[in-house]
Amino acid sequence: xxxxxxxxxxxxxxxxxxxxxxxxxxxxxxxxxxxxxxxxxxxxxxxxxxxxxxxxxxxxxxxxxxxxxxxxxxxxxxxxxxxxxxxxxxxxxxxxxxxxxxxxxxxxxxxxxxxxxxxxxxxxxxxxxxxxxxxxxxxxxxxxxxxxxxxxxxxxxxxxxxxxxxxxxxxxxxxxxxxxxxxxxxxxxxxxxxxxxxxxxxxxxxxxxxxxxxxxxxxxxxxxxxxxxxxxxxxxxxxxxxxxxxxxxxxxxxxxxxxxxxxxxxxxxxxxxxxxxxxxxxxxxxxxxxxxxxxxxxxxxxxxxxxxxxxxxxxx
Length: 316
Fold this sequence. Notes:
alpha+beta, 2,3-Dihydroxybiphenyl 1,2-Dioxygenase, domain 1, 8-stranded mixed sheet, 5 helices, 16 strands, globular, dioxygenase, dioxygenase activity
């Protein structure tokens, strides 16, 4: 069986303040906070998930907010830029919206597409691109109408310390197709209609340092648990050292680091974020896996409260 991922499942990053993080992604970008939980490996830290109405794979960006953490440095071994897809004819809306919130943004062209680039409050690098492919979001909030709403990931720009090796992993391990190259970037695509375009810097990039404002890992989609086990075998057969399957409550995960330093994950599409709360109530309260429930009081006491709100618009 030939395995090919259909694209990005989720991207996970480090940030500082949780309220600031929610203000930006829910308040300004208009994504839905679909889950507030904890880092299962460090329960004193939130794990916040943002996406479309139910957090479909390919729409999910997740964060570890750590106010006491240090500032990171973007570089090799990381996702350098996270790309979001928006509907055609919506770029003017987003340019005006970012300007209203005093978020500096610039336009540039890459592979015959126009991108609007900016950073969040923690200097995480983001960009918007108009794409017709992929389903329209059904989530509308914070002044973002449905016909302008972010659909999910357009893709990502990868910074590798060993791009030749990373290109091999993308093409021969993950099954992405190498489709074009220009201006120092190599473009890959998958069969999916969202989260499917990956641009890789062709020249080596000096290693970055993890911390606030950097991406921790990028996850690729597996359709179910059975396929994930096939992926684990497949990854191992290509010379990588995958972890055992990790239960992440809303998906199962297998991790491995490719030779360019980027941490990859293979994540299952199911069971999704409605496994422990109703769709209408997603993200409203702190959800813990069963093994942490006996410690709920202590865990909650270590987490700063936050609210989903519309941040103040400073119009010039």
